[in-house]
């Protein structure tokens, strides 16, 4: 008899660092999912802003199947055509001259931070090593990136952590001015903080960071792992702001569900990563690169990017309507299809309680900290699915209010 895994098997066999919902989805199509019992859900979570074109998008499925019959993996002792095609496409569409490919956002940020320090070391000496990040930021789970991230809970108990890292206040230029000096090698910032609560940067803030970096010969690193690849309504958020970084990181939506990451930069910066200075066994994997290229070419089209903002407005209208009825949100914010609804004072810290109620009503959502409901759906989610999903979410919120 065939073995059918259960939620209890997670507790039995898996390390307990996650607490997944009881439901086990087994099939997806577009913005709909079905579980082991055949129950259907509308997906507003998007694999945590990963499934940029929904589930099993035919263009991505075709790219994967075609590549699967040709070549899977070589390592970087050789190169491969899909990796070169992906790198070329990223360079042609962005400020960058050079691309480093890896398998995740954490790896992309690790590479960006190592590059920034190596660039400063080679050009200005070993004292120029300070990295400025921001409180409530999130940049990955490696020891380096979790230390740069501005949420101490993620690094507690893993010390000693890497040094030379300081944290300013997001959207507060004065706090950056107090920390930056000629020993600063880089400022790393999310144009929109994701795990920190879906908080967009102000125009003045990013422009000010660019000016401060230029003045102090430091590099500006944009972590666009969550905010990029069409999610803001432009290919990357820096394009929406008109502020160009020196280094940009991407992952999540880049692969449309297949694990892949990328670091983009300029040629005069990239040249310090000489042979042997950094690497990734899986970086540039042929399967990942083929799928990512298909995702990139599909997303970077007027119909998809223009549709993002239209869908944003539809979500916002629904959330405002729900809030007018139940008063559960203090603020609705975000950019494109990364939307956060901060809980009101009466429901402070209770965003997590919505998730299992939403599952029971047939819709999947996220949180960004204990106080923010987060929506990160497919960039091409049908508007009918938005309407139906928000009706289901409203029923879950009504139940939260009834349980208050």
Automatic annotation (TrEMBL):
EC assignment: the record states 2.6.1.11
InterPro entries per the record? Ac/SucOrn_transaminase_bac, AcOrn/SuccOrn_fam, Aminotrans_3, Aminotrans_3_PPA_site, Class-III_PLP-dep_AT, PyrdxlP-dep_Trfase, PyrdxlP-dep_Trfase_major, PyrdxlP-dep_Trfase_small
Which residues of this UniProt protein bind N(2)-acetyl-L-ornithine? 141, 280
One annotated GO molecular function is: identical protein binding
Sorted alphabetically, which Gene3D superfamilies does this protein's record hold?
Aspartate Aminotransferase, domain 1, Type I PLP-dependent aspartate aminotransferase-like (Major domain)
Give a Pfam family name.
Aminotran_3
Q: Which GO terms describe its biological process?
A: L-arginine biosynthetic process
Q: Where, by residue number, does pyridoxal 5'-phosphate bind?
A: 138, 223-226, 281
Which parts of the sequence carry N6-(pyridoxal phosphate)lysine? 252
- Cofactor(s), names only, from the UniProt record: pyridoxal 5'-phosphate
> In the UniProt record, which is one GO cellular component term?
cytoplasm
* Reactions catalysed: N(2)-acetyl-L-ornithine + 2-oxoglutarate = N-acetyl-L-glutamate 5-semialdehyde + L-glutamate
The family this protein is said to belong to: Belongs to the class-III pyridoxal-phosphate-dependent aminotransferase family. ArgD subfamily.
Leftover remarks:
May also have succinyldiaminopimelate aminotransferase activity, thus carrying out the corresponding step in lysine biosynthesis.
Write down the PANTHER family for this protein, in alphabetical order: AMINOTRANSFERASE CLASS III, SUCCINYLORNITHINE TRANSAMINASE
What is this protein called in UniProt?
Answer: Acetylornithine aminotransferase
UniProt source species: Modicisalibacter xianhensis
Q: What is the lineage of its organism?
A: Bacteria, Pseudomonadati, Pseudomonadota, Gammaproteobacteria, Oceanospirillales
């Amino acid at each position: 008899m065939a073995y059918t895994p259960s939620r209890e098997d997670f507790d039995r066999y898996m390390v307990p660092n996650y607490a997944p919902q009881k439901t086990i989805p087994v099939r997806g199509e577009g913005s709909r999912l079905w579980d082991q019992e055949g129950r259907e859900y509308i997906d507003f979570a998007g694999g945590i802003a990963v499934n940029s074109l929904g589930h099993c998008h035919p263009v991505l499925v075709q790219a994967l199947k075609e590549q699967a019959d040709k070549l899977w993996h070589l390592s970087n002792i050789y190169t491969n055509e899909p990796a070169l095609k992906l790198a070329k496409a990223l360079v042609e569409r962005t400020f960058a001259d050079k691309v480093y490919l890896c398998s995740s956002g954490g790896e992309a940020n690790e590479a960006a931070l190592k590059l920034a320090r190596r660039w400063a070391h080679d050009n200005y000496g070993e004292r120029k090593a300070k990295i400025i990040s921001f409180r409530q930021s999130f940049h990955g789970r490696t020891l380096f990136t979790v230390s740069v991230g501005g949420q101490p809970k993620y690094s507690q108990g893993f010390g000693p952590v890497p040094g030379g890292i300081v944290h300013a206040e997001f959207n507060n230029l004065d706090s950056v001015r107090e920390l930056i000096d000629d020993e600063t090698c880089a400022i790393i910032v999310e144009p929109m903080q994701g795990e920190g609560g879906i908080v967009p940067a102000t125009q003045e803030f990013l422009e000010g960071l660019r000016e401060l970096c230029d003045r102090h010969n430091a590099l500006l690193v944009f972590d666009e792992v969550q905010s990029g690849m069409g999610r803001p309504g432009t290919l990357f958020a820096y394009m929406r702001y008109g502020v160009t970084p020196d280094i940009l990181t991407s992952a999540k939506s880049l692969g449309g569900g297949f694990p892949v990451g990328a670091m983009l930069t300029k040629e005069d910066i990239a040249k310090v990563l000489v042979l042997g200075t950094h690497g990734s066994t899986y970086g540039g994997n042929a399967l990942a690169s083929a799928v990512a290229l298909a995702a990139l070419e599909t997303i970077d089209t007027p119909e998809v990017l223009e549709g993002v903002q239209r869908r944003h407005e539809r979500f916002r209208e629904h959330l405002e309507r729900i809030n007018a009825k139940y008063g559960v949100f203090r603020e609705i914010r975000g950019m494109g299809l990364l939307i956060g609804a901060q809980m009101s004072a009466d429901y402070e810290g209770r965003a997590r309680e919505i998730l299992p109620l939403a599952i029971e009503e047939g819709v999947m959502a996220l949180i960004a900290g204990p106080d923010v409901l987060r929506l990160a759906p497919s960039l091409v989610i049908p508007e009918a699915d938005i309407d139906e999903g928000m009706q289901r979410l409203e029923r879950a919120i009504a139940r939260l209010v009834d349980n208050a």
